[in-house]
Fold these 2 entries.
Entry 1:
Amino acid sequence: MGSDAMQSKRTALILVLLLVASRPARAQVDVTGEWSPRVYNTHMDIGDYTGIPINEAGRLRAESWHPDQLDLPENLCRPHPIDIGLRVSVSQLRITTETDNETRQPVGLRLHVAWQEPEQVIYMDGRPQPSANAPHKWSGFSTGHWERNTLVYTTTHLKEAYLTRTGVPKSERATVTTRVHRYGNLLTIVFIINDPLYLTAPYIRASSWIFDPTQIIPPFPCEISPDGTIIAAGKVPSFMPGKNDILADFATEYGIPLEAALGGEETLYPEYIKKMKTMKVAPRTSTEHYRRAQ
Amino acid sequence: MDSRRVVLITVAALLLLSARFAAQRSAAAQAGAPGSARAAAPDDYTGYWVSEVTEKWRFRMLVPDKNDYIQVPLNPEGRRVAALWDPAKDEAGGEACRSYGAAALLQVPGRLHITWQDDNTLRLDTDSGTQTRLFRFGGSPPANEKPSWQGYSAATWGGDEPRDRRDGQGGPVQDKEGRLVVDKAQQRTADYLQVVTTRMRPGYLQKNGVPYSANAVVEEYFDVFSDPYTKNTWLGVTTMVNDPQYLIEPLIMHAHFKKLPDASGWDPTPCRANEPR
């Protein structure tokens, strides 16, 4: 190999360096700071699975859920998984830069949510995924990258939990792709939940926060009552299949066909409005049920 | 390897990569005159889209009961006006389009058809209520613009602010004449559609008569993305309604739409005061 070859390689190297230098700068919008929630929650009723592409297995699990389960000692201080905490509780949010303890170099971002204080680190330093057998946590394991000005991260290794506060399940095999958009002082987070066990399609929903640099997030102390204090010791409240006698209450109260209230992918699309007109609706006893929550 | 071949292969690779990076600027390789909004589009918003109603389902797929506004930060005056809702009166009075105005149109389940009307006007048609919105780039509402259901929508490609006013990475600097200018190297790339709508006729935020006033200002942010699971393309919209006349704080709503290959399912309806769409 002579000097020509060396020259050629040098030229190639220079061209590559020029290309790298000419790439648009990575558009890392600053999403750190204090964010005040503007979350308008739904799915607060038993039997309200509306808008969820739930499958039969998910519906069966949801129907067996009893609201008294929330009062079991092991559930009293149980945090939401991070993606659910950001969506179903109206929670203040703090985003900070996560740095390596030794090098002090940034490795990603850290989310802190007020309710039950879950924390989530989004690693952006290219580290590999943990083993599929690694422990699952409330915060899961998240790796992220920038797509232009949007932070996109994927969370795996989440514990089994739920999609709503009323028992619609989410399995430990679920993964969540999250997109964080900053529009001036408005932060919108879009959650795309994929659960091969309980959903037939990705479930997409979004929440927004307003930039609030003076926000103070108070501590969230939580104390567990001894076993037997609220629910009789040894009892796990639940409904056996087909025996949930409050399942239809939501549908009846709001004049919705029961089948529609129990969700499913078909119910998400405009065509379903016509179909609902052909379905049976239980007689309503009132048109003012919304008042109990208003 | 022959040294010339090394250079040739490298140059070819560079050209291909450069083309890819250029395509990131305008993923859809939009046509349009140089300098036009269409040519600068960061994404392809055109095509047919269908609502996927995963949020506020009972408020959107049904007509909610009168006074059911649990999701809306109404002030006392807003509540008073919401209690006056009378769909039959709206139909009879030619006001059936009140729930299809710009502030709430994208909450109504249905299909969208988005096209470029010209190089600086993006047009959005809906089958529900058969409405048309025009997103005008580079303009402001004429002084004599009459209020309408869809109002006047001023559009920009958002996100190209100087990097960054808060993170110390730069920002505007003074030029020789003392004017503030932005170093292009410090400028982020636009990546979403921002629309500000004013001059609307008074309308409804929900089908059940929850009001917004003629003074309302609607800010919207449109993003195109694909989900990694189905590879479907989605249009996400965040809407913020500012209306001190009826709201105690801005109302923020979300909607998302799945891209469709064609017009199948397009089902035009007239404005209907007592139907979900």
Entry 2:
Amino acid sequence: MTTRILLIEDDQELNELLSEFLSLENFEVDQAFDGEQGLNMALNGQYDALVLDIMMPKMNGLDLLKKFRATNKTPVLMLTARSDEVDRIVGFEMGADDYLPKPCNPREIVARIRAILRRVEMDKAGRQASGSRQVIVREDVELNHNTRIVSKQGEPLDLTSTEFNLLASLLEKAGQVLSKEVLTETALGRKLTLYDRSVDMHMSNLRRKLGPFSSDEPRIKTVRGVGYQYVIND
Amino acid sequence: MSSMIKWPLIFRSLYWKIFFFFWLTLIAAIFSVATLSEIIVQERDQDQYQRVVKLGIKAADIFETKGSAELTVWLRYIDQEFDVKGFMLDSQRRPISLANLPKNWLEFTLPLTQRRLSERHLRGFQPYRISSSSNRIYTFVAYRDNRGPYPAWLKHLPILQVITALIIVALLTAFGTWRITNPLRKLKQATDSFARGNLDTRLTKLVGCRKDEIGEVGLAFNHMAERISLLVSNQQRLFRDISHELRTPLARQQIALELLARKLPDTEHQSLHRIEREIERMNALIDQVLTLLRLEQNDQSPSIETYDLSDLLYKLTQDAQFEAQSKDQVHLQQPDKNPLTGQPELVSRAVENILRNAIRYTPDDGRVFLQVDMHKDTVVIRIEDEGEGVPEDSLKHLFEPFYRVEASRNQQSGGYGVGMAIAEQAIRTQGGTIEASNRSSGGLRVDITLPKTSK
């Protein structure tokens, strides 16, 4: 089965080159050259993943992502300007699954797409796994692998797919410290790289959405030099 | 030439110069007016010759009828009551009363031709020829005993009024001087602030209410500031646009290169890797330039947050060790917890850049020290390496973009690039300072001082 990718990139030549490269890597690529066209194609087509540029005419990548995520959970790899931290953070908040600074090596793009797809497969497999781990309840938080919904005190939380995976990993091993390496592999489906702050950024979004315990203690603790831990609140 | 004069510190300030100039001028004016009026009064007195003669005749009569003692009483009386001071001589020019005898009274007993004192000394002595009712001849010498350096009116100076006048004059002068020097001080502050890179600095208040030369100076400053900041921002925009525009072809090139790699045999891949590395380098450089420009423009509203510096430095050190591929090169010494308020992103960027440089210039078996010291309101992050250090005269240029220390010295290492400039800008944005110096034992030391709570 071929993997269908939608490439949304306004630079005509870059778009051509990249889709040629992706085709060589056995992806089936559709091209969109501005935000509006991209959103239309994304909503109407059946894609396995989106590769999305941020700076675009008519509708920028972040707006597109926001509208797209309202109805669709297809994984999105975002291409950001290299040094623009803000874009990255906002992008993750909007529900991007991973980002790559632009310009970057196209092999890296392929690796990231594969990583995201692998993770989606893992999620599906997880959902079909035995019933015992389908629902995790810890204090007032309930995580349902089946529906992929997390609720706190009965109220559903609006988590992105990556945030869900991070929380699932942490809750399964609540009280233990999970390293960034492990979290990157389970939540992002890839290896941790140098100066890689993806997990930290997802984690800070997750913390914000989850909020602290009623005692105002943080639910997720950073253990310096080691990783993250979901605190058991006795 | 006036700069050669060593003024006491207080007079070197324009404020006090102007103050004393006005104040002394006003005091001099008061004194000269008083002296002038004194002279006028004196002249009027001379018109009262008749009055003095009358008093003289009366004195002669008193002497003849009541004797010397009564004359003394009379002479003292008219001194006080009529402000006519004088002594009496008989026809042989002998004093007939001890009252009011001046020091040089003997002079008047001599015949005119034998007098030794000059005119100057006798100025103010006015002899009157008096004939008494019995027609005997006397001489009444009237004088004013204002022989000192002070004019006569000083003796009767109304102290309270003078002090009041001096205070009022001082207050007026102080205000007048302040009106002149205060705007100058403001101008200096504005210029300093502008020089520190706050290109938005304007002298609105000064220009708003002053229409005089000082107002014009303010206006001229504003024009200049406007012009310079326009030039600077144009240049920055040009830089930014060029950098952005360079990225697109680089991105295309990178993909084209990968496509080429698929079509060429493996034997050619070494050259391709070479090109790929160069593209990476160019990308990194463009990134740094853009970062620096963004920091310089400082147009993002700062996202101030509380963070743990110890945590941040720990992570940085870990990454740096990993990158340097020598596990124990960086020695970190810091408190366990160190909460600060500021922009962790910027601090991280600054320390990372300096740490990288330190590692690059330290030999493989050398060490890099990162030490944190806590002070009352500040935190000092000290980064020291065991490299060769930097020539003293280059230290102050170290934070300039693309500054190179002696071309021969670091041909291989490629200079300091933009990293140090980014570090400086990042620290300055948060109200901190950054300084470079040489260690006595060799190697470079960089001190970053951060306020515990930055604006």
